[in-house]
Amino acid sequence: MVEGGKSGATPLEGDGKRILLILGTPKADGFCHALAEAYAQGARSRDQVVRVLKLGELHFDPVLRGGYERSQELEPDLLDAQRQLHWAQHLTLVYPIWWGGLPALLQGFFDRVFLPGFAFRYHRPQDREPEPLLGGRSADLLVSHDQAHWRYRLRQDAPAHRQMVRCILGPCGIRTRHLEEFSPLRNSSEEQRQAWLKRARQLGAQR
User: Fold this and answer.
1) What range(s) does the Flavodoxin-like fold domain occupy (predicted)?
2) What is the CATH class of 18-206?
3) Quick check: 6 and 57 in contact, CB under 8 A?
4) Pairing, β 18-23 against β 131-132
5) Which residues neighbour 9 within 8 Å (Cβ) at sequence distance 6 or greater?
6) Using CA atoms, how far apart are residues 17 and 156, in angstroms rounded to an integer?
7) What is the pTM of this model?
8) Cα angle vertex 138, ends 132, 140, to 5°?
9) pLDDT tier for residue 140 given thresholds of 50, 70 and 90
10) pLDDT at residue number 127
11) Which of 1-10, 12-21, 58-67 has the lowest mean pLDDT?
């Protein structure tokens, strides 16, 4: 299994790239877990340092109760997540698409963690664009869903992809280097899933 419950690291951290792998599903197991494990194996084969955040094992309220107008105390797991984000040079997010969008837990994680003053900030009320505070980092997105690629991208306009790349990571200064879809997952064969896991390992080894 992937190392770490809430956050885990290899026993010895050398000079490899620092990768934070965020598993953005509330499920305790499933294909996203296998993708995350394969990616981590590939990265560690190239002496990269991988830490893992499994959002389904964190303890936090995913609802931003008062929006950004009211302070909401961060739980210990979220404070740790912010430390891990500052540590990381590269992020790898592995998550499913449900109802065309991000799982509620993953959306709640961004709402609670990527806060003004941490991930971005506005200097003046009239500023149209925020100053990104997490610049210098890159990201890989490994995404599973049950739609054919063409249907999700052409008929549905890929809303989760646009949100993640353009509305969440980009404004915070994180450049998406690769977005890989593993779909349609439903009714996929064991041969197809093994090929996808091989591809995840390849992506990890490329970083």
Assistant:
1) 17-202
2) alpha beta
3) yes
4) unpaired
5) 3, 49, 50, 51
6) 36
7) 0.90
8) 130
9) very high
10) 85
11) 1-10
- 4: pLDDT confidence band, cut at 50, 70 and 90? very low
CA atoms within 13 Å, Cβ hemisphere of 32: 26
Those residues with Cβ within 8 angstroms of residue 22's Cβ, 6 or more apart along the chain or in another chain: 52, 53, 55, 91, 92, 93, 94, 95, 109
Rounded CA-CA distance 128/183 in Å is 37
CA distance 50 to 203: 14
pLDDT digits (tens, 9 = 90+) for 35-75: 999 999 999 999 999 999 999 999 999 999 999 889 999 99
Helix/strand/coil (H/E/C) assignment for every residue in the chain = CCCCCCCECCCCCCCCCEEEEEECCCCCCCHHHHHHHHHHHHHHCCCCEEEEEEHHHCCCCCCCCCHHHCCCCCCHHHHHHHHHHHHCCEEEEEEECECCECCHHHHHHHHHHCCECCCEECCCCCCCCCEECCCCEEEEEEEECCCCHHHHHHHCCCHHHHHHHHHHHHHHCEEEEEEEEECCCCCCCHHHHHHHHHHHHHHHHHC
